[in-house]
Structures are given as C-alpha cells and as structure tokens.
C-alpha cells in the first residue's frame, strides 16, 4: 500500500478544517484579539496617507495612517486590520452583491444558466428595490424565468434567484479570468471605478512602508502605488462551508504590483505559505474590513482559505436595521436583505494589476 506524503500546506488545511477549531486558533495570527502577543508579526508604519477617493461621497477610512503589520516569515505580506468606517463596509458589501456580479462580468453560474442583467442578490431580495428598478410584474416574471433557464443540459432543474444566489461562488472584474485555461482570455469589462479608486488608495498608502520607529527596514513592498490600476479582480462569495484550496495567483503577466484583498462579513482563517506546498503556512484570522496585500516575494506564495468562522459577522453588518441612513442606501435593496446574507457569508474582493 502506498502512502502519499502530505505537504505541510495540506496538513494545515486539514488542521483548520471545519469542526476542528476550538483550540487551533490559539496559534493563528489574530490582530484584532491579541496584537501584542503575535510573535509572527512586526508593526510597520505606513509612509503615505490612506486617502479617501474623491469619487466616493463619504468617509471610507477611519485614519489616514492606520496600524499596519508585516509577517516576519513571509516577506511582502502586509496586513492593515480593518481601516474602514462601518458605512464603507456596508457600501462595499452592496457593491459586491449588487453591482459586481452582473454582465458583462462573469460568474461561476454563467456556464450553467442564462443569467439576467440584474444581480441575483437584487432579484432574490426584492426586484422592485434593485438599483435599476424593474417596472412591472410581467417584466419581473420574465427575469425570473430567464434566470431559471438551465444551459447545455448540465442542470435540468430550474432554480429561483434565492437558490442560485447560494450557488454564486465568484464573479470576475475587469479582465475576465478563465478558470479552465487559467488565462485572462474571456474579454474585459469595465472595472468598477469606485473599487479601483479604493484599491489604488491602498496601493499608494502601502508604498515602501517603514519600520515602526520610522527606520527604513525591508518590508517587502517596493512597488510605487501611484502606478497601480485594478486591471483584474475577483469577488469570492463564501458560505459557512466554503473553502478555497491552496494556490498561487500567477496568471498575471507582471507580478511586481501588490495583489490587494479585502474581507467583508464572516471571519476566516487565511493560510499564507511559501513558494512550494512544502513550506508550513502561517494561519491568519481575517476579519471583516481587514486589508491584506501580497507584495514582492509573497505574491508568489501559496495561500488559501481552509475555513470560514461561524457567527463572526460584526453587528453593524448583521443587524437588519443597520445602514438605512447610508448615503447610497436608497439605490439598493433594503439593508435587512444584506444583513441576512452577511450573517452567513464572507465576501472577499481582490484586485490585481496585470501588465
Ligand atoms: O478569500 C480570500 O481571502 C482569498 C482569495 C484568493 O486567494 C483568490 O481569489 O485567489
């Protein structure tokens, strides 16, 4: 009988498998709970302000120079524990659920169903309160019918928007990634301007950070964020059982720019490893609002999400009456729909410069 040796990355994935969590998180980097005892991290100082983009009519960031950290064993991996206002997180959740997963952006469901121009979230919530209102009942019924239409006989059962929403796992932004060929060969759609500006603001703020005493240390990010543009991105939707297997994002033609990644909703364990699966990864608890940037060497590192942590969505996202006064609220479905979703899901929104 042959025994395949498990890689260090695989072992860590199994360790953090759902249902085995009680004591395991003690060893994870968790900046919200115990920053002082995180031996694995080192505090750094952002050398540039985190500026609110001019295009967004309210404050996105709570501080211009929020606390930031690098991981000692993973050069180039930068963390900014939630620098966002509550309103900004709600705004981003709305964008990721209502705006991003609409044509011409692609979703994992496109291969199987004819998808309507509206987002599944808006349809599943209440078609009459979507950002582009559906004017009458007949029109709404047509959209519902379209969305249930299976393609290519893969699925023969129709599904209503609410059921399909539970199967929506990702959408792609900008240059459209093809998961089969692992190339950006599915055309390009306009990248959401506000999300691009937000990502660029982060890229600028994390340019050549300093040591915590203002000294110049190698923090692993030499990239000048002024050159950053979000050319491709992915919004990942995780329910409580979803995981993302270890992988390296290496399709981009040039990989000198940071890959910037934002979390909304449930917390998760994120594993960051090395150039091969044999390097033991470091587990990091990512919470709602956390910014993670893979720069320099860490851009080539294996990473993944072995578990999403139940019951961890913050109150300002899961409270049904939150967010009603937000500036953009009137153009989206009512907040209680988002609260229902975010109580049981994590959203990850990431952006890359490819050229
Ligand atoms: O969900 C995350 O934090 C990781 C996402 C990721 O690794 C990817 O989209 O390639």
UniProtKB/TrEMBL annotation:
Domain of life: Eukaryota
Record protein name field: Uncharacterized protein
Organism encoding this protein: Coemansia aciculifera
Organism classification: Eukaryota, Fungi, Fungi incertae sedis, Zoopagomycota, Kickxellomycotina
